[in-house]
Design goal:
Length: 513
């Protein structure tokens, strides 16, 4: 009775295994498009073990990076391309290259100097000058240098066979490795294709042509450049013309001149808005008695980050005050506060708008990349053209440099809100405003707060740079110490900036903890 009951189960298991094997064979055939039986056998062998299983793929070994690229395995193709290029360059240099070209160029350069010194020596002998000994020693020294370089050139010329054999050995090793790992890498891509049909499969003719042309072009260019140095000018120097740069400079200057002339009212309005906030914060930080400011900062730190952090904040403020940095530190905080207020006021709403509009975010993302990667000294040039020098220009430069993290992290936080939570709120009748204020923003608040923190920290990092265009504060002391190599002043002012940053960081991140 047991055998009778088990036989149907065994039959069903056998049928399922056969169906799975048939389906796998069909999938492999669809994926590889060529040499079906070969790849089916090797994929089954590789799939039977969780460890690396070496198999031999002759075509991958012969065609190397071109095979990997045609199969879409570019993460393998590029390292193998570098390795094979090194091998082919070594072979070409050893067999056909002019290994002593650099040495002979140095000899030619020295011979010109030697001829001049010989003429000077002959003139000195003829006139009975006192410099005969000097010129004699110089001529002998140059002749010895030429003899040494010529011996070096001969030695280099004799190393051609060794270099060629080394390149040939590297090529053979690379070919063996490629032949052994090709099927394993392709089987991994096959597994990815099963879970994501968008992964490219097969061996398209277009990919074969592109991969082959690309690999051959790279190898031939490298071989010609290193085997015959300075023989092909296009390989050594990028083709360009001076008028391209001059025309570009003229176009940029015309554009900015037109913008300055036509946007005077707009820039005045922006300057007025910055001045209003900046004057208000300077009144709070600079004009208010120091004991009031210290008390408020310590209390705020205590409420947000705890008693221990509040004590440390008090110690940092004492350091700033006792060393005479108080007024400049408050000026720096006013400047930083103005830039941070504008950055946060613009960045959070912009991030909220971008979070649900991927196309718009895709448009402004390159702009933010430009703002973060362009050196500050570069975008200071147009800012000075638009706003002149002084604190408003420093605020704008600080906003450009430090304003992007709050946008990015607001978008990241809002997109990270679980859809199940939002759907539950909508199911209970939440409107868009309730969904934003009671669901999205609270759940995204850690990321948004991190963005605010990063904006403040990056803004504070611009203190020294902003001092170059007329911003006062602690950056002025650091800049002065840099100009006059005053190590003590620079270090003390740097610690004051550091302590300001630490206090602001603890205040902003306190609730997050």
């Amino acid at each position: 009775m047991i055998d009778a009951a088990q036989n149907p189960l065994d039959a069903r298991d056998t049928e399922a295994a056969l169906a799975y094997a048939a389906g796998r064979r069909e999938n492999i055939s669809t994926f590889v498009r060529t040499n079906h039986e070969y790849y089916i056998a090797n994929f089954d062998k590789i799939g039977a073990s969780s460890k690396f299983t070496a198999t031999l793929n002759v075509f991958a070994g012969l065609f190397g990076p071109a095979w990997f690229g045609a199969r879409g395995l570019w993460s393998w193709a590029l390292p193998f391309l570098i390795l094979e290029t090194l091998a082919f360059v070594s072979i070409a240099r050893g067999l056909f290259g002019d290994l002593a070209a650099d040495a002979f160029n140095r000899i030619a350069s020295i011979e010109g100097t030697l001829e001049l010194r010989r003429q000077q020596l002959a003139a000195a002998i003829e006139s009975g000058s006192a410099k005969i000994d000097v010129y004699t020693r110089t001529v002998k020294s140059l002749e010895a240098a030429i003899d040494g370089i010529r011996a070096e050139a001969v030695e280099l010329s004799e190393q051609g066979l060794t270099i060629a054999l080394t390149g040939f050995s590297i090529l053979i090793i690379a070919k063996i490795i490629q032949a052994c790992v090709a099927n394993w890498a392709l089987e991994t891509r096959f597994s990815d294709w099963l879970s994501n049909p968008a992964v490219r499969s097969g061996l398209p003719i277009s990919q074969i042509i592109f991969s082959t042309v690309f690999m051959v072009l790279i190898v031939v260019a490298a071989m010609l450049h290193y085997s015959f140095p300075n023989r092909f000018d296009i390989l050594s120097h990028f083709p360009t013309r001076p008028e391209y740069r001059l025309n570009s400079i003229a176009w940029v200057e015309t554009f900015f001149a037109s913008a300055v002339a036509n946007g005077d009212a707009l820039f005045d309005l922006i300057t007025y808005g910055i001045r209003t906030i900046l004057d208000a914060l300077e009144l709070v930080f600079v004009s208010t008695p120091w004991i009031v400011v210290v008390s408020l900062i310590v209390l705020l730190t205590w409420l947000t980050a705890g008693l221990r952090t509040a004590i440390w904040s008090g110690a940092f403020l004492a350091y700033i005050g006792l060393l005479g940095f108080w007024e400049k530190a408050m000026t720096t905080l006013a400047l930083l506060g103005t830039a941070a207020c504008f950055s946060i006021a613009i960045g959070i709403p912009l991030g909220m708008f971008c979070a649900r509009r991927k196309r718009f975010y895709a448009v402004i993302q390159p702009v933010m990349d430009f703002m973060q990667t362009m050196p500050a000294f570069v975008f200071m040039i147009p800012v000075i053209a638009f706003f002149g020098t002084g604190k408003p220009a420093a605020v704008v430069v600080t906003m450009i440099f430090g304003g992007t993290p709050v946008v990015r992290l607001t978008v990241l936080g809002l997109r990270g809100v679980p859809e199940s939570v939002r759907e539950a709120a909508i199911a209970f009748g939440a409107n868009k405003w309730f969904l934003l204020t009671r669901v999205d923003l609270p759940l995204a608040s850690p990321s948004i707060r991190a963005g605010i923190n990063q904006t403040i920290m990056l803004s504070l990092a611009m203190v020294v740079v902003a001092s170059l265009i007329g911003a006062k504060g602690l950056g002025e002391d650091v800049l002065e110490a840099l100009q006059y190599a005053n190590v003590g002043q620079g270090i003390l002012a740097g610690f004051a900036i550091l302590f300001c940053a630490m206090i602001l960081d603890r205040i902003v991140q306190g609730k997050r903890k």
